[in-house]
Structures are given as C-alpha cells and as structure tokens.
Specification:
The chain is an all-beta fold. The chain contains two helices and 67 strands.
C-alpha cells in the first residue's frame, strides 16, 4: 500500500514551453466520457482512460494523471462514497486508487493477484464504509476505514468462477448480477468466500430468466431491480418474485440509485424508474454511458459523443468539453511550424481500411482544433500530414489528398484533378491509398500511393503532377514511410518487401535518366536485417536509420546507394555482459526520431521507448509504463519540438510528452531563452538554457566572474541543476551565462536570477 500526495493539479492549458526539463505532460483526448462521479462541487469524469474534474463553483477544468499523482494509467470506473468523502478509481489492469482530499492511496492487491482468465473490475457499489467491487472473478470487498482489502467472494457453481457485473445490498442481503443468473447471501456472513454460503435466486415469474445473464442490478425503495440480457435487456423488479416491468431494448444499460428512484442510462436515452415503479424518459442523448443525480432537477451525464452534459429543467443546460484531441487513436505525429499534428486514421492491415472518420487534430498556441471526416470533404483514415505556408496536406488511406487552410477545406485531390497521377487501386475505382507525404528543399510535395502502377508521385511547386514507376507487381504493393536524403534520394518502405530508393536526377518531368533500387536482405543489395521494415529516418549526419521487426540497422553511406560500391546497412553490435548482440534485435521497431543532439529516440511494439546516444551504442533512457508516465509500452509514433526539446510520444492508448535536454542548435547566436528564470528556492529540477549555437561550450559564473559550472550544450540546449562544482546549491544572486562557439568566440548570452 502506497500513499502519496497529489501534486498541484495541472490546469487544462499549460504552456508546453514552460514544462521543466525531465517533466511529463499528457495530451489525452478528454471528450469521449464513459463514467462520472459527483463529489460535492466537482464532477469527476473518465474520458478515454484519462481523468479530469469540472468544478461547478468556478467552471474550471482540471486534469489528474500519473504525471501529477495517480498510480497508473487507463482508468475504467469511478465511485464516490460521501460517508467518508473518498473517491475510488479503478484501472484497466485492476489497480485501485483512493483519492481523499489531496492524498492518494494506492491498493495494488487485485492488480497483483494471479487469476486464470480475464481479470477486470466491472462496477463499484458502496454500503456504509465498504466498497464492493464487482469483478470478472467475483466480488472484492474494500474497507474504506482501514483502506485495505477485507475479503474476496468467488461465485463459482460447478467450480467455474462467474463474472460479477454489479452488486447491491438490500436490508441484510447482498445480491450479485452474474453471467449466469442472480445470487444472494447474508451480507453479515463471515464465510462468503465459500460458495456454499450463496444461493441462486430462482423466484421468477418467467422461469426462463433464472439462468439468464444479468448485466446490472441495484435497488429502489428497498426493492431489488435488475437488467437481464434476454430480449433486449428486460428490466425486472423483485417483490415476492422477479417480474418483468419493461421490455424496452436497452443498449449498454447502467442502473444508478438516486433519491428519486433509479436512473437508467441507455445509449441515447435516460430513463427514471421512480419509487412507484413508473418508467419515464427524462432525457435524450447521443451516446450516454453513465449519469448521476446532483439534485432533483440536475442530472450530469457522461456522453461519449457530446462530452460532459448538465441536464436541468428538462433540457440540456450545459455541454462541457475539454481542450484536447478528438481521439486517443494515433497513426502518426508531426510537429511542423509550431503546430503539433495528430493523425487518427489507419488500417487494420494494409489491405483492410479502418474506416476511421476522426480525421486529425492539431495543437497551435495551446489550442486544439479537430478536423473530422466532413471537414476533410469526406476523407477518412487520415495517416499523414505535410505543411507549407498556411496550407496543410492530409493523406487519406482511402480518399486521396485533402488540403486545409487551418480548419477550412481548400481542395481534395484525386484521380480527376491530378490527371490520373493519384491513381485508384487496381481492385477499386473508389480508393486512393496515400501513405506518406514529404516536402523537398524546393517545396515540391512528394508522396506514396499504394497498389498502383506508379506509386511515387510529386506535386511540384508550380502545381504540376508527376508519378514514377518501379516495375513491381502492384498486387500487394503497399508503401509506408517516406524520407528525402541529402542527395535528394527518396527512400520508402515497401510492406514486407524491404525498401526502395528513387532519384529523378533533378529532372522531374524527364524519367529517362531516373534511377531506382529495391533493397532487401541480400549482401550487396541492402543487407537489411529483415524484409519487414517498419520505419526509416535520416539523422543529422545524413545516415539512414532503419527499424525492422528484428531491431535496427544503419546505412552509414547512403550517398553510395547507386554507385555500385558497398553501401549495405549494418546492425550495431553492443555488449551485453560477456556477450555481444545486435541493437534491439529482439524488438519490433515502430518509429525512430532524431533530436538536436543527434540522439535516437526509438519506439517499440511492446518494450516502450528508448533514448540512445548518437551512435546508438549507449542507452540513456528506457521509458516504460512501469517506470514512467507513458501510458502504454506500444509506441506508435514520435515527433519532436526541436526548439524546446519536447518529445511527443504517441501510443495505442493516447499521447504524452517528455521534455528532453536537447534542442536543435542555432546557426548564429541570438536571443537565449532560460527556463525557469528566476529560479525560486523550492525548484530542484534542471535549468534549461536554449537557443544556443549547436554544441556550444557553456560557462556559468557569479556576478564577480568566478566560475561555478561549465558544460557542453546538447544540440542547442545546455542544462544546469543549479549546483556548483562541489554539488552545493548556489546562493541567491545573479549568474552570468557565457557561450563559446567552435571557433572559440565567447560572449555573454544570458543572466539567471537565483532566489534561495
């Protein structure tokens, strides 16, 4: 059991530049809400695995995450016990947090428990100072006074554990809704862990309902009500016997006890079953998952489409949305011109579309904008974006290329208006599968088109369109990543076939002098570790780094690819104990990105995120969900803000960032930015000094000129922990920062105020 203090809650808007070096930030989608709990003046909401609360007293929105106090990621359920003012938070992995005031207590017993089959928590129910957690394997009883697990009840007729969907207590009896009927027992029985102490409820008017699956149970006026899955979720109430009182077709129903009766959330409708068992429709929603009653006239609703809804006086009074991406689904990330782009599309495999209509989101000036299917002129499965000037180009794995100016659609390019350059797939006249886009140094837009005769295409700066063939069988010819190297060669991934390299010889309109090569696992023809290449990236030295399902390899001389000389990729041999092995050879590499110090950020399929030295031989960081705020070990894509070092990490559960200690270096020394400045007495993190000349030597002196610290910038950023050479905190005063370039020219670039 671990008890920690909840850090100061993060406001909805926090300037990313002001996040200290080494700190994390979440960028989760918070508008698809699936659970809520009212805690006095706050409405706590679970949204796509994240947690925030809306404060009705001041209309503020505050996010709570693993970054600022929670013990885990991927929240599923909330429950509030007003008797002792404690909020129960359960996670996808069955971890449990108790939030009481500003203190969080973690109870990991259920998470750590070895259980055969599926392990999940379905519901939270309170009875005085006990919380009953309905689980896939039984009922877990949590003592809220002692803050510990009191007992576990396994409902196991015939030796097979039954899934418990919900629990309720009426009088002295405890009832559970299971996958095979309703069971009950004396709640005061000290031996309820013994299934022999439980009885199956067989008192049904309709005996066919005895063994039915019951997905919800609660009480009204000291009478049990339940929802059976039969015939579209029949609603039953138990007097002497269980009787069906409604045969409405309910979708994803939840039953919440209130002073007015029970409220039933049913996808697009909210019903009230009053204390006289009269059913009435009290609200219509889009996609309601849960609701709670604050008073007789005020209902708060968790709606997966609209967000958090206040329903008052028989109408929608408020819709509260959080400034966040539209979705946690991520296919690719790009940081371009001070804008962070998140593409939400994709495909289930290269031949099957996901049919994702969420489009893309972009963050600019701390404000999220969401561009969906309709904004993009009915383009779905957005997988890549490129940007120049005020125009953003979105690649669709279904509908070609859409161009936006901010939130305004300009044009959609397809077969007709590109002269057939954006060709349809050989099996469908309706699908144009664009996988990636990149601008070259001359502002020509290059891209990849799958399952066509000419997969590489370009839109020139003069708005002319050309495409290029590679003499391949187009059946099953799918493309992924595209990069343009220092020799203007275009490199791209061919799904399960290796890589291609193409050079148009600076004559786009003339294909007679073009060169191309298909690279595979053969020595002399690429020497790739596998044909299953998953990503490629060029570093600051012009070397091409390749990620595969068998680790990493590097083309150290990509300029020789058409020369006939040895240009093969090489795997990096690293020392592991007494043995040598190739770098990350046991991992599937999903993405590689390069920071301002030429270090390699490598995202894997299941092992989290690595930061490696510039040559790849040294591990600087290895972030996983077990040791960091990363919300999943499956890293989908990475991008970087090279001006402040923020690394954006897209996972299969959503987006977070980490502010690293490296930025791109400046060509000439200009205005230097220091954060934080002033440095206050309670600050103990790194002080970032950025916008320096690349790899500058940095000296820090006191006002009298005495040297207190020196270092070398990582790219364009130097980092100082505020200590002198004796590892002692420097005193109050002004400190001068001097930067020396590679020619030895030194000048004072900044001042730092310390307050001790």
């Amino acid at each position: 059991m671990i008890r920690i203090l909840l850090l100061t809650l993060m406001p909805a808007l926090l300037f990313s530049q002001d996040v200290p070096v080494g700190q994390w930030k979440d960028y989760l989608g918070y508008n698809q809400i699936n659970d809520l709990a009212i805690v006095k003046e706050r409405v706590y909401c679970v949204a796509q695995g994240g947690l925030f609360y809306y404060d009705t007293s001041d209309n503020s929105i505050n996010r709570i995450s693993k970054i600022n106090g929670l013990s885990d990621n991927n929240i599923e359920h909330l429950g509030y016990n007003d008797q002792n003012n404690k909020l129960i938070i359960t996670y996808e992995n069955c971890n449990i947090d108790i939030l009481h005031g500003n203190e969080i207590l973690n109870i990991s017993d259920v998470k750590r428990k070895e259980i055969n089959g599926i392990k999940k928590i379905n519901n939270i129910y309170f009875d005085n100072n006990l919380a009953y957690l309905s689980c896939s394997f039984g009922v877990v009883v949590l003592d809220l006074i002692k803050e510990e697990i009191k007992d576990t009840y396994g409902i196991s007729p015939n030796g097979n554990l039954k899934e418990i969907n919900q629990t309720t207590i009426v009088g002295e009896k405890i009832y559970v809704a299971t996958s095979e009927g309703i069971y009950f027992a004396d709640k005061n029985n000290l031996f309820l862990s013994d299934f022999g102490q439980w009885s199956k409820d067989t008192a049904f008017v309709n005996t066919s309902l005895i063994n039915e699956e019951y997905n919800a149970i609660n009480k009204i006026n000291n009478t049990v009500v339940a929802m059976a899955e039969l015939d579209g979720d029949s609603l039953l109430v138990k007097n002497q016997e269980w009787e069906v009182i409604s045969n409405n077709t309910f979708y994803r129903p939840s039953i919440e006890e209130t002073s007015l009766g029970v409220i039933i959330s049913d996808s697009n409708k909210i019903y009230l079953l009053d204390n006289n068992y009269n059913m009435s429709e009290i609200a219509q929603m889009e996609d309601a998952y849960s609701c709670d009653l604050k008073n007789e006239n005020e209902i708060w609703i968790a709606d997966k489409t609209l967000g958090l809804i206040k329903y008052a006086n028989d109408a929608i009074d408020q819709i509260i949305t959080v400034n966040s991406p539209i979705s946690n689904e991520i296919y690719s990330l790009e940081y371009i011109n001070n804008k962070l782009f998140v593409c939400h599309g994709g495909h289930m495999n290269f031949s099957v579309n996901s049919l994702n209509n969420d489009g893309a989101s972009f963050l600019e000036n701390n404000d999220w904008k969401n561009i969906d299917f309709f904004d993009l002129n009915r383009a779905r499965d957005i997988v890549a974006v490129a940007s120049r000037g005020d125009k953003d180009y979105y690649a669709s794995w279904y509908n070609g290329l859409s161009v936006m100016q901010g939130e305004n659609h300009i044009i959609k390019y397809g077969y007709q208006n590109t002269g057939g350059v954006l060709d349809t797939t050989f099996y469908s006249n309706n699908r144009i599968q664009i996988s990636d886009l990149k601008f070259d140094k001359d502002n020509n837009l290059w891209g990849l088109n799958s399952q066509v005769q000419k997969p590489l295409f370009v839109k020139t700066v003069n708005d002319e369109w050309f495409s290029f063939a590679m003499n391949q069988n187009i059946d099953g010819l799918y493309f992924d990543d595209l990069i343009i190297d220092q020799m203007n060669n275009k490199w791209g991934v061919i799904y399960e076939k290796g890589l291609f390299v193409y050079n148009e010889n600076n004559t786009i309109e003339n294909t007679s002098d073009d060169q191309f090569k298909i690279l595979n696992t053969s020595v002399g023809n690429g020497n790739l570790p596998s044909l299953n290449i998953r990503c490629i990236e060029m570093d600051l030295d012009g070397e091409i780094w390749v990620g595969s399902d068998q680790g990493v390899s590097v083309f150290y001389s990509p300029e020789l690819v058409f020369s006939g000389f040895n240009f093969d990729s090489q795997q990096i041999l690293i020392q592991e104990g007494e043995y040598g092995q190739y770098l990350l050879s046991s991992e599937k590499i999903n993405c590689i990105k390069i920071d301002g110090a030429n270090r390699k950020w490598i995202g894997t399929e299941s092992a989290g995120l690595y930061l490696l030295s510039s040559d790849g031989t040294s591990e600087i960081h290895h972030f996983t969900k077990e040791n960091s705020p990363i919300i999943s070990n499956k890293i989908i894509d990475i991008t970087l803000n090279q001006e402040n070092g923020e690394v954006f990490i897209g996972t299969d559960k959503g987006l977070v960032s980490y502010r690293s200690n490296a930025t791109y270096g400046e060509n000439a020394q200009g205005d230097t930015y220091v954060f934080p400045n002033p440095v206050r007495e309670n600050y103990r993190g790194n002080i970032a000094i950025n916008r320096l000349i690349a790899n500058a030597s940095v000296k820090i002196t006191d006002i009298n000129g005495s040297l207190v610290y020196q270092t070398v910038a990582k790219g364009g950023q130097a980092n100082w922990n505020g200590n002198n050479f004796n590892n002692e905190r420097v005193g109050t005063g002004i400190y001068l920062v001097f930067s020396t370039d590679e020619n030895g020219y030194e000048n004072m670039v900044s001042k730092i105020l310390f307050i001790k």
